[in-house]
Design brief:
With 165 residues, this protein is of the alpha+beta class. The protein has two domains: 57 residues; 87 residues, Alpha-Beta Plaits (2-Layer Sandwich). It is 51% helix and 21% strand. It has three helices and four strands. A four-stranded antiparallel beta sheet has the order 1-2-4-3, with helices on one face.
Length: 165
C-alpha cells in the first residue's frame, strides 16, 4: 500500500473515531451545561420562595433572636455573630482569612461570607465548627479547592438561623 493510501485510511479512521466517540461526548457536555443552568435557576427560585415564606411567617417588627434569647437589633446581631465567628477563627489554623457579615434587611436574609487558606484538615475542621448549632449559622455554600499556586482555599457563605421570637 502506498503512503497516500495509508494517509487516506488513517484520516478516515480518525473521522470515524471523532464522529463515533467525541461527538456523543460533546453532546453530553452540552446537555450537562443545560442541566446545570436549569438547576441553578431552580435553586434561585427555591431560595427566593423560602425567603418569602420566612418573611411571611415572621410577625412584623420581630427580629432574629440572639444566643441570649432576646431580640437583637441589626447592629447587635451582626456584632454578636461576627464575635462568635472570630472566636472560632482564633482557634483555627487558617491563613489569609476574610470575613464579611451583613445584617438582615427587609429584602434579604443576613449573609456571612468567609474565605481562608490552610491545610485540608484545618479548613474542614473550620467548616465543621462553623456549621455547629452553637454558631447560629446555616451553611448555604461551601467550596474547598486548590488554587493554581497549590494552596487550598475554603470559601463559604452562610445565613444566620432565622428563628423569630
Amino acid at each position: 500500500m502506498t503512503p497516500r493510501a495509508w494517509a487516506l485510511v488513517l484520516t478516515l479512521g480518525a473521522c470515524v473515531v471523532v464522529l463515533g466517540v467525541a461527538r456523543p461526548a460533546w453532546d453530553q457536555a452540552a446537555q450537562a451545561r443545560a442541566d446545570e443552568a436549569r438547576a441553578l435557576a431552580e435553586r434561585r427560585e427555591t431560595r427566593a420562595e423560602l425567603m418569602r415564606a420566612q418573611r411571611a411567617r415572621r410577625p412584623a417588627g420581630t427580629r432574629v433572636v440572639g444566643s441570649e434569647g432576646r431580640p437583637l437589633s441589626a447592629v447587635d446581631d451582626v456584632r454578636a455573630l461576627r464575635r462568635r465567628i472570630l472566636q472560632l477563627l482564633d482557634q483555627a489554623q487558617a491563613r489569609k482569612v476574610t470575613l464579611d457579615v451583613q445584617a438582615a434587611s427587609t429584602t434579604q436574609v443576613g449573609v456571612v461570607r468567609l474565605s481562608a487558606e490552610g491545610s485540608f484538615d484545618s479548613l474542614v475542621e473550620l467548616a465543621a465548627q462553623l456549621s455547629a448549632p452553637a454558631t447560629g449559622l446555616v451553611l448555604e455554600q461551601v467550596r474547598l479547592g486548590e488554587q493554581p499556586d497549590g494552596v487550598l482555599r475554603l470559601e463559604l457563605s452562610a445565613a444566620p438561623r432565622g428563628d423569630a421570637s
